[in-house]
Amino acid sequence: MSEERTYQNLFEIAGDGMIVHDVETDCVIAANPAAYAMHGYDREEFIGLHPATFIHPDSQPLFSEYVRVVQSGDVFQPLIVNVRRDGSPFYVEWRGTAFTYRGRPCLLSVVRDVSDRVEAERLLEQQVEARTREQSTLLEISQTLASALQLQPALILDQLRVIIEYTHAGLFVLEDSALVALVVRGAPQLQQSVPFRVRLDGPETLAALFNQHRPIRIADVWSAAPAARFLRSLLDGPAAVLLEGVHAWMWVPLAVRGRIIGGVGVAHAERDYFSTHDADLALTVANQAAITLVNAELYERAQTLAALHERQRLAQNLHDAVNQSLFSTGLIAEVLPRLWERDPDEGRRSLKDLRRLTRGALAEMRALLAELRPSILTDTDLGDLLRQLGSAFTGRTNIPVAVTMDGQEGGLPAEVQVVFYRVCQEGLTNIAKHAGADHVTIHLQYEPGGVALHLCDDGRGFDPAHISPGRSGLSMMRERAQAVNATLSITSQPGHGSQITVHWTNVSK
Length: 509
What we know:
Blueprint: H1 3-13, E1 17-22, E2 27-31, H2 33-38, H3 43-46, H4 51-54, H5 60-71, E3 79-83, E4 89-101, E5 104-113, H6 115-146, H7 153-161, E6 168-174, E7 178-185, H8 188-191, E8 197-199, H9 202-210, E9 216-218, H10 226-234, E10 248-256, E11 259-268, H11 276-342, H12 344-372, H13 375-379, H14 382-397, E12 401-406, H15 414-435, E13 440-447, E14 450-457, H16 472-483, E15 487-492, E16 498-505
Parallel strand pairs: 12-13
Antiparallel strand pairs: 1-2, 1-5, 3-4, 4-5, 6-7, 6-11, 7-8, 9-10, 10-11, 13-14, 14-16, 15-16
């Protein structure tokens, strides 16, 4: 067998398509059976075809580039869309080499149908994109639910619907051997049925329903399957509305650290709608929802505890300040008539004390009202608030306070005004406890674009570099000032009193 015949046989039996293309005439001059068969032609029909006949119009510029590059001697293996005789497109990988055939410049191209590979890659990319979207959505859902400190049951079902479509859905919490529906989604009559309770008959029912913290999927709730019969027996009475107009059902338990706290039920009108992947996604959302429910419970407890502590603090302030002032006022008022008859000068001094105590008690009551109604701290001018603090301090300690102010008052942000009030309040408390002062001054100075507060006393003073652990009020004042980008400075030395200065500048101007 001649060498030429050997090459011809290899050309004919090759599994990949092989096409000889005359560059000058731009026609096919030879092709093996694999080439013309993959395009839907027989040999006689395929020979002589112009490549534009079996190259998709969108790929023809790429094919022209392929011809040019291969002719120059470089390697180029493009993915080109070819067209069969019946018009159906398919993906082909081209590899070629330039050579001379019968004295004419030609291209020998090896063409391989890679449609299956391209389709597999496309499906894989779609799956990756879908999973990426799901993960991104789950992250957004997690962030949304984690940021919800107060209980928002509807938010949980709305977030679940972002990744799993449903016809009906309900969120339940476990209370006293019953599931209580907090919120449902679906038809209007369904949403109007809330709240309702689903009674659980014993621990066996609870264990079956929560299925070792794995979702339960039911293809058709109206079938004779044991799980379907169990669900229908469970959702009776008002809860039966959840089964109206649906077939597929999925139950996802809510649990935290092994403690069952509730569950989410979702239903769809189509049979066998929910997949295993849907169950995994729903469980991920349910786990985050369970944490959200626990966080909301803890937040509510914290609010209740904070309110209790605040009431106790106000009650203590009421006892320490107002109650003692009123008690002293009552004693003076009781002995004042007899004292006046015996010694009018002493009576006048007691009357002065009575007036001071009464004014102090009134100022303390106003300060306590400001604690109960925080809007007072922002609606009232800062100068008036400081005068009120000074009066209350004097009434409580019998230490005179001079309150002065320079500049035009007003225009402070609410949070800045509250910080100045609190710093002055804490400073006066420290003076009463530690300073042993005879006089206190409060000076408020409004400046262009800012304000400064100076709180001074003539007490025993201290070394700011060696503050005892009991003086935690100073660190609290610093934290308050830093919260609004204000500066707080303390000037003091033993035997020479102290001065606290808070300065805030409006950087937005």
